Amino acid sequence: MKSERIAAIVGVAESDLGLVPGKNVLQLQAQAAKAALDDAGFTKDDVDALFTAGNWAWAPNLMLGEYLGIKPKFTDGTNIGGSSFESHVGHALAGIRAGLFDVALITYGSTQRSNPARGAAVPFAPLTEQYERSFGLPMTVGAYALAAMRHMHQYGTTSEQLAEIAVATRKWAMKNEKAMMREPIEIEDVLKSRMIAEPLHLLDCCLVTDGGGAVVVASARAAARAKKRPVWILGHGETHTHNSIANMPDLTMTGARESGRCAFEMAGVTHDEIDVAEIYDSFTITVLLTLEALGFCKPGEGGAFVSGQRTAPGGAFPMNTNGGGLSYTHPGMYGIFLLIEAARQLRGESGERQVPDAKLALVNGTGGVLSSTSTVILGRD
Amino acid sequence: MAGQIPKPVVDSDSKPYWDGLNNHELMIQHCDDCSKHIFYPRLLCPHCFSDQISWTQASGQGKIYSYTVVHRAFGPFADQAPYVVAIVELAEGVRMMTRITGNREDIAIGKPVTVTFEKVDDDLTLPYFKLV
């Protein structure tokens, strides 16, 4: 590792997860923020930078800052979908490196399960949406289905191979008491589940839940007085390549090729040094494409890479160890939960699902319709 | 059936495109500097940033880049499932989202298609494609 110790994750927490009809998005974020600051041994008054992403207010940072009683000297509402929080971590690293602040609070909350907007017809399609919305591609699953179909055509990837990911992820969820779906499933169960948008079945798709999370990032100076040992932010990269799926340059290659390359270069580590990977799994195909784009295998080899339950507990490539968006929780923009699990793995706090002696973790968020990617490499001393 | 099919908010980028569809012509843009075709329409060429953009009628010929058969649809589309949404690459090199009509069993990536003009609502004509 060549990376300097500039900034670290020192606190992580989830709010209530699953079906949480009694709480609004501000309560979920407040609950997670307090727990994450407790985890760090910090108080609200330590926080001098605020990060959030959402579409629950016209300027979420303003409403959240007011609600929490935080007046930050640095604020960032970057919203690039589910990968926003990996970008927040990268931006916090940059801000701390520049000496702009010491302690960043990153939060997310969603009540999409209890207050679904899905299916509500928005009657007008403005700006670049006007060229696509009238065709009825169900979002976001239809876009990922288009990518999966292309990958199958180009490389011979099979539904069984995609199902391997769902099955392995469920095995991790069975070890996580916070996971929503903990009944074992077989590959056949995935293939026999209801077809949503060919070739993606119901069990290729993430859950729809409520929930929130928070991550506290501290400068090396502030991290020294934190309660828990620091999880250093060693590398980060981000990009976005398109907004709508018809404009994705290559349906089989995501921006993780670029964001991953940047993160690996900054961290000065290699693929085979990564002990645990937390890869955004909005759909099984998201994972397969990301593994290829990050360079864990060659383009087209993702199906073989995940076959034989290689990503399951005890497998050669421990991945999505909390049970993922597929089986643990997925409140819309899932990226913050990848960071929470990676930090816990590196602190050795993951109990039954702990990857033995995990020192280096890779987190890759994906947002929109494979539109944005943000990669973070984390390590412990 | 819940609600109407989302209506395009026509603007000065898109008006020639929608006017073209109403006349059963598929209009796309062409960059007069780098000679690449452009879809969707915009003020600047996304390849070379030139503002020397002109409109041209596309051949209407293309091939299927990818597709999906939608089984679970929402809102105004719920009653239409199953149906095929695709990305078609036109002979001019640009890609667009569309529907493919006809027998689903015959649809495959790479197959040639040709544009049709589908009046889906009183004031909305969309470019669909069918197998050649």
Radius of gyration of chain A: 19 Å
The strand line-up of the biggest sheet of chain A is: 3-2-4-8-1-9-12-11-10
* Pair of chains with the largest interface and how many residues each contributes: A-B, 41 and 44 residues
Distance between the termini of chain B: 32 Å
What is the H-and-E element order of chain A? EHEHEHEEHHHEEEHEHEHHHHEE
Q: At the first level of CATH, what is the class of chain A?
A: Alpha Beta
Q: Please provide the count of β strands of chain A.
A: 12
Number of domains of chain B: 2
Biggest sheet character of chain B: 5 strands, mixed, barrel
In terms of DSSP E residues, the strand content of chain A is: 15-25%
SSE succession of chain B: EHEEEEEEEE
User: Which word captures the global form of chain B?
Assistant: globular
The fraction of residues in strands of chain B falls at 35-45%
Distance between the termini of chain A: 11 Å
CATH architectural designation of chain A: 3-Layer(aba) Sandwich
* Largest β-sheet summary of chain A: 9 strands, mixed
What's the helical proportion of residues of chain B?
Answer: under 10%
Q: Provide the CATH topology of chain A.
A: Peroxisomal Thiolase, Chain A, domain 1
Mean pLDDT of chain B: 96
Shape descriptor of chain A reads globular
**So how many helices of chain B?**
1
Fold and architecture overview:
The complex is a heterodimer of chains A (381) and B (132). Chain A is an alpha/beta fold and 381 residues long. Chain A has one domain: Thiolase/Chalcone synthase (Peroxisomal Thiolase, Chain A, domain 1), CATH 3.40.47. Chain A has helices at 25-40, 60-68, 84-97, 141-155, 159-173, 187-192, 220-223, 256-267, 284-294, 302-306, 324-328, 335-347, and strands at residues 7-14, 49-52, 74-76, 103-110, 124-125, 195-197, 200-201, 211-219, 231-240, 276-279, 360-367, 372-379. In chain A, the strands form two sheets. In chain A, strands 3-2-4-8-1-9-12-11-10 form a nine-stranded mixed sheet. In chain A, strands 6-7 form a two-stranded antiparallel sheet. In chain A, helix 5 (159-173) crosses helix 9 (284-294) and helix 8 (256-267) packs across helix 9 (284-294). The mean pLDDT of chain A is 96. Chain B has 132 residues and is mostly beta strands. Chain B has two domains: 11-57, no CATH class; 59-132, OB fold (Dihydrolipoamide Acetyltransferase, E2P) (Beta Barrel). Helices cover 6% and strands 43% of the residues of chain B. Chain B is built from one helix and nine strands. Chain B has one helix at residues 15-22, and strands at residues 7-8, 27-31, 37-38, 53-57, 61-70, 83-90, 95-101, 112-121, 124-131. In chain B, strands 5-6-7-9-8 form a five-stranded mixed barrel. A three-stranded antiparallel sheet of chain B has the order 3-2-4. In chain B, a hairpin with a 5-residue loop joins strand 2 (27-31) and strand 3. The relative contact order of chain B is 0.20. The mean pLDDT of chain B is 96. Classes of the chains: A alpha/beta (381), B mainly beta (132). At the A-B interface, strand 5, helix 4 and strand 6 of A face strand 1, strand 5, strand 6 and strand 7 of B. Chain B: Pfam families: OB_ChsH2_C, zf-ChsH2. Chain B: Residues 55-118 form the ChsH2 C-terminal OB-fold domain. Chain B: This is Zn-ribbon domain-containing OB-fold protein. Chain B: Residues 18-52 form the ChsH2 rubredoxin-like zinc ribbon domain.
